[in-house]
Amino acid sequence: MSGFFLALALVLVVSIAADFRVLNALICLFNSITGTIRRQLFKGTNK
Q1: C-alpha dihedral (14, 18, 15, 33), degrees to nearest 10
Q2: Residue 42: which domain range?
Q3: pLDDT tens digits, residue range 7-19?
Q4: How many domains does the chain fold into?
Q5: Angle at CA 33, nearest 5°, toward 22 and 38?
Q6: Taking the model in full, what pTM does it have?
Q7: What does the DSSP 8-state code read for residue 31?
Q8: Residue 41 to residues 15, 19, 29, 37, 38: CA-CA distances in angstroms?
């Protein structure tokens, strides 16, 4: 039974790590998109 719980914990850790990687990628994507929009807005206000 302890082996089962160990495997379950391992799966949980791996899934959490994968979630963080996906979350990190989404945050990077979001930042690049908002950064581009922000640059466009600032370019518009500078004129």
Answers
A1: 160
A2: 1-47
A3: 999 999 999 999 9
A4: 1
A5: 145
A6: 0.56
A7: H
A8: 38, 32, 18, 6, 5
